[in-house]
Amino acid sequence: MVETGHFALVLAFALSLVQTIVPLFGARLNNQRLMAVGGPVAVSGFALTALSFVALASAYASSDFSVASVWENSHSLQPLIYKITGTWGNHEGSMLLWVLILTFFGSLVAAFGSNLPATLRANVLAVQGAIGAAFFLFILATSNPFTRLNPAPIEGRDLNPILQDLGLAVHPPLLYLGYVGFSICFSFSVAALIEGRIDASWARWVRPWTLVAWMFLTGGIAMGSYWAYYELGWGGFWFWDPVENASFMPWLAGTALLHSAIVMEKRSALKIWTLLLAILTFSLSLLGTFLVRSGVLTSVHAFATDPTRGIFILCILTLFIGGSLALFALRASRLTAGGLFHPISREGALVLNNLFLTTATATVFVGTLYPLAVEAFSADKISVGAPFFNLTFGPLMVPLLVMVPFGPLLAWKRGDVFAAAQRLMVAFAAALLVTLVTALFIDGASVFAALGVGLAVWLILGALTDLAVKSGFGNVATGIMVRRLLGLPRSVFGTAFAHLGLGLTTLGIVGTLCFGTEKILSMHAGETVELSGHTLRFVGLYPAQGPNYSEDRGRFELIGASGSAIGEMSSAKRFYPVRQMTTTESGIKTLWFSQLYLSLGDEGKDGSVVVRLWWKPLVTLIWGGGLVMMAGAAMSLMDRRLRVGAPSRRRRQASAVTSAGLP
Amino acid sequence: MTRKQKRLSVIAGGLAFLGAATGLTFYALGQKASYFYMPADLTTASLQPGQRIRLGGLVEKGTVERGQGATVAFSVTDNQKDVKVSYTGILPDLFREGQGVITEGSFDANGVFVADSVLAKHDENYMPKDVADRLKAEGVWEESKSE
User: Which positions does UniProt annotate for heme binding (chain B) (predicted)?
Assistant: First the structure.
């Protein structure tokens, strides 16, 4: 089975070369038969990669330690779920997952792209094939997951205990679906540059792909943040770690792309800019892959320490980013500029959004890469952390967030800020009221905290105002309003929900950062501690045994007003003997949207234990907001206009154009 | 305004915005980036009390003392000099005597390094990269036994 997987991977590499070359020449020669090769090859390439992936996963599931990758990252005592997720919990396996998702997206274009102009489809598949070929070669040459060991070891070396968590089952696949999803936007852009023209079907295709990629990336980042929050035991939800920034940069650029693609689709303006953003977004995804996979960073994620891999990925990076930008420089002038608009209009607002988001991306980029550059060119080592990002990223985000509710209320071409402001009066008054109430009546609220809460309320109510205005709330009878609301395009709901999610996330961040409290103390069994109105009693420390670890679990009781226990919490120190590693399992109690968070420290000589306790108000909204944003993207995807294959006049026209182009 | 003037003003506005952001970024890099030192560097470096730095090295054997409550004191050494560090909080799981560590914080008036974060991201054969590189340069690095 393992050799089958290896063989399938080599075949998939060969097919990806075919997928690159044949359709590309077909499109140049306008040869239908050559162009038609792309589709079936892309689908078979995906099938072979899937076979290869299943082969590796089954080697992991059955603990076949004759495979080097399995031996290094698995153990026979691990629960089955962690054996399987361990498939991508290491460098080799995660690269295989990367190409699996890449070929999956390629085959989707092949399967559903029948309404695309034939040459565009061929070129897109060719570019997709080229990316695939580069990464297949990378895997086969430097990170082969199927390398055998002879003689086979009896027992494996266990998966890194930090990764033995359900988070590993969800976070990397979601993140990769997002990262790699942007490759489609990239391929479409490069294909458009090769052809030297962009037509209507281009924009209609790129926007849903951007939405899909963005939705998964949002989920991946939110999930990763929650995972780090509960697993690392530090109580933080975002560390401005380079690995996090690596996924955050494509997200910011992708958000900009999402917005500029709307302008392009509706008004056929900003074509060249959208194209460039699509290229940059995927370039940042590649950069993220490089940062994480090459081992240039010191982090939990950087398992790889082999420099040959780094140089190989750097070559891929240079080839694709340099190549596409060079093509852009050569060809962009051929693309025609689109419609005109007044600076104060929906388009103008979206341009402003793009300006802020790309600048924010640039600051994160500088903060992430500057320490590497300093280290490379001088002997100094510096670290750039939260203080830097608070000072640069923060001031860029605040005005952007203030402007968000205005955007959807402005008309296309020429908008009226005062009319939009009038409609937002209720939201503004409510936000102001909340700000004042927070500043005056909540203990320990600073001016910044109050303004932060006000901003979040402004965003949330602003998003709802958009729906209210568009359904005619207050102007028409309730029945008509409800009918209008239900009749609104799904994409309007999508926008409102995405912005609502943004507001919720902001509220969660402000609540946690500005109103959170913490205590560090050493406790004996039976003692109680009080934090922000919650009383906890330390019951005691109990040893326990897991399948591949032993632990000391500290049990706590939440004491109610009457003095009796109303809930339990526990936190543990786990010891994994195979890797000789200790991990902390945090204890979390969710109360409404807030959480009580507990982390166990070292045991003292007198039997006391160091305990760190946090009260995190509204913390769950940080990730809940992410889910609402995902829901918004999903609604937008269900919009009739975007549903791939939905029978529409446009489609018939498009296919008419295609068939008219036949010889 | 003519179309050309309009376009120019938009471009000028965008550039001014980018310029402001760039200025802010470099100001922030100058102010907020914290430099990495090892104990031996501290004799030559002139640091004000309160200036944030990262201090890296090995946790000196036999120096870890648990004080009142959750405060821990230990020494960080590079086998040339050592620095007393005080930290209140939970030490990372991988914190051990004789192992590499990076602490972040500043010196107080008494010359004790008060850390607000302690990182020990290593397992048995892995150290913080900053520390490992410097220890190799100082010649005190012991290559981990080959398997």
Answer: 122, 126
List the alpha helices (DSSP H) in A522-661. 620-637, 649-660
CA dist list (Å): A127 to A19, A122, A134, A184, A321: 9, 9, 11, 9, 13
Question: In the Cβ-directed half-sphere of A276, how many Cα atoms lie within 13 Å?
Answer: 15
ipTM reported for the complex, 2 dp: 0.77
Task: Catalogue the long-range contacts made by A23-27 (C-beta closer than 8 Å, 24 or more residues apart).
Answer: A23/A122, A23/A123, A23/A125, A23/A126, A23/A129, A24/A122, A24/A123, A24/A126, A26/A122, A27/A118, A27/A119, A27/A122, A27/A123, A27/A126, A27/A194, A27/A195
CATH topology of domain B36-138: OB fold (Dihydrolipoamide Acetyltransferase, E2P) (2.40.50)
**What is the spatial distance between Cα A211 and Cα A188, in angstroms, rounded to a whole number?**
14
Could you give the CA distance from residue A129 to residue A122 in angstroms, rounded to a whole number? 10
Taking the C-alpha atoms of residue A269 and residue B55, their distance in angstroms, rounded to an integer, is 52
Evaluate whether A638 touches A554 at the Cβ level (below 8 Å): no
Interface of chain B against chain A, CB under 8 Å? 6, 10, 14, 17-18, 21, 24-25, 27-29, 31-36, 52, 54, 66, 69-70, 88-91, 93-94, 104, 121, 123-124, 128-130
Q: Say if CB A293 and CB A300 are below 8 A apart.
A: no
Q: Give the DSSP letter of residue A662.
A: -
Of A563 and A617, the one with more pLDDT: A617
Q: Residue B105: in which H helix or E strand, if any?
A: strand B100-107
Q: Judge: A370–B128 Cβ closer than 8 Å, yes or no.
A: no
Q: What is the mean pLDDT of each run of 10 residues along chain B (147 residues)?
A: 75 87 86 80 73 84 79 86 87 79 85 85 47 61 39
